[in-house]
Amino acid sequence: MNPDILNTILGCLGGLLFSLGWVWLNKTSDDEVLASHINELQDKKVDTDLMGYKARVHLSADQLNISSGAATKVLLDTEDYDPGGNFDSVTNYRFIAPVSGYYQVNAGIRYENLVADKPYYCMVKRSGTVILRSLCHTASTSEVASGCSDVVYLTAGQYLELFAYHVAGVDTVDIDGDPADTYMSVHLLSI
Fold it and tell me: Is 51 helix (H, G, I), strand (E, B) or coil?
């Protein structure tokens, strides 16, 4: 065989072997880095039980004769869903945060038997303090709906409650028990 051709082949073969060795070494290094990242992610993975930290509840029947000038707890007594069992719909009518985190909160109240030109509020309290509030002021005497929505931070054990408030000057205003209008939903978004 021609020595020049042999030298060319050996040179190419040597370069190929060097390249394959470099790829193999880097592959090993990349595999170790990848395994390290997988272990980190597994250590930090979100517990799938967190997916159960959500609830939607509503008022099952009209709540009658809401006092004027006083915050009245809405007796959310029917659960649409509550897979984590975090909403007390029997005694305290409240959502209790199972873990600290950011929660999406939505609430609505529909009032009936109104006095015209008076304010009607929807309020959500966190452990007794108002954190969400919306106001409706209506010329109607039949009905009005008020709602609020926000992302709030709750520490484990804090609770959310829905309150109605109006200053109609009479104690004959009612809250409608329609599940589409008087409700609260709470969903954990992140920890």
Answer: helix
